[in-house]
Structure formats: C-alpha cells, structure tokens
Amino acid sequence: MRRVKEPVLEFNSGQMTLILPEAANQDEAVKKHLAWISKVHGNVLYSLQQAEAKTLEKRTQENFRQYVWELAEVYSTELGVDFYKIRFKKLHDKWASCDTGGNLTVNTLLKKLPDELIEFVIFHEVVHRLEMNHGKNFWKLIRQKYPDHKKFDMELFVYWLMVEKIAK
Ligand SMILES: [Zn+2]
C-alpha cells in the first residue's frame, strides 16, 4: 500500500480503494478520518442510485472503433505523442490499458458508455504515453483537461458495476 499524507480515494474499474495516512493503528486511522469515510460512503450510495436511471448506449462495434481511433489520434496530437495500434478486446478488470510500446488495448464494453466517458478513458490512456505510472505528474496532466476528473472516475466506477452485471 502506498503512503499518503491525506486520505485518497482511488478507482480502478469496479474496484474502489480508500487509502488512509499512516497511523499508530488501524482503528485510530479510521476514527480520525471517519467523516471523510462516511462522505465517500454517501457518495457511493448516491452514485448507485443514479446508476439505476442510466441507460446504456447502443453503438455498433464499427462505429465505436472508429470513434476510439479518432479520439486517440486527436489526443496524441494534442499531447505530442504517438501510439502504434489499438486492440479491442473484452477485458474483465479494466476499461483500457496502454503498454510501454504504445499499444492501446480497449475494452469492447466501453462502447456502451456515453461519449464523454469514452473520451475520458482514451485521454487517460494517451497520457500514459507521457507518464506510465499513476503518479503526481500523471494526475497533473489529467487535471489540465479534466479538473474534475474524480467525477469521471466515479462515473466510470458506476458504469463498471452496471456493464459488468449485463456482461455476465
Ligand atoms: Zn491508467
């Protein structure tokens, strides 16, 4: 687990992790950040409620692929990087990934999401061409385009839960 100064909320597809600053023991850490934890809990419940009202997009595979290619090209030009190819695959643990060789792998389930979330996911992957890890610099680059990226991460978390359910 990484060390943090402030409590941190991390989303990775269907998984949400709360990271608390180091304390003498776990109970103490929880007690100290109880207000924050219950706020997060409240937000999650609210999001799940919102998820009920969401509908999934009906894009064709071809349409979706073309859109992803266009976005990847626009964002790589914007960030001054390049990428080699995009593979489309049903992934079970993430929306997309980017390897060190500049190959993007995109989850085909992403096609059911609204445009702005597809854009966010592809931008995230293209930023990995500059920063491989989710470190400080990575989030700095994300915030330049998405100052409220946490909202998007949360939305992706909610959609993951929805899409996963129907994919089974
Ligand atoms: Zn990433």
The parts where pLDDT drops under 50 for at least 5 residues are none
State which percent range the strand residues make up: 5-15%
Assigned CATH class of the largest domain? Alpha Beta
- The CATH homologous superfamily of the largest domain corresponds to Metalloproteases ("zincins"), catalytic domain
Query: How many strands appear in the DSSP assignment?
Result: 5
Q: How many helices does DSSP assign?
A: 6
Q: Order of strands across the biggest sheet? A: 3-5-4
Q: What's the CATH topology label of the largest domain?
A: Zincin-like
What is the string of SSEs from the N terminus onward? EEHHHEEEHHH
Outline: globular
Q: What is the residue-averaged pLDDT? A: 88
**Small molecules held by this entry:** zinc ion
Largest sheet: 3 strands, mixed
Using only C-alpha atoms, the radius of gyration works out to 17 Å
Question: Can you name the CATH architecture of the largest domain?
Answer: 2-Layer Sandwich
Give the helix proportion (percent range): 40-55%
Question: Would you tell me the structural class of the helices and strands?
Answer: alpha+beta
Kindly report how far apart the N and C termini lie: 31 Å
Count of structural domains: 2
Describe the structure.
- With 168 residues, this protein is α+β, with helices and mostly antiparallel strands.
- The chain folds into two domains: 8-53, no CATH class; 61-167, Zincin-like (2-Layer Sandwich).
- It has six helices and five strands.
- It has helices at residues 26-32, 34-53, 61-79, 115-127, 136-145, 149-167; strands spanning 8-12, 15-19, 85-89, 96-98, 103-107.
- The strands form two sheets. The chain has a three-stranded mixed β-sheet, covered by helices on one side.
- Helix 2 crosses helix 6 (149-167).
- It is globular and about 50 Å long.
- The relative contact order is 0.14.
- Bound molecules: zinc ion (ZN).
- The site of zinc ion has 3 residues, from loops.
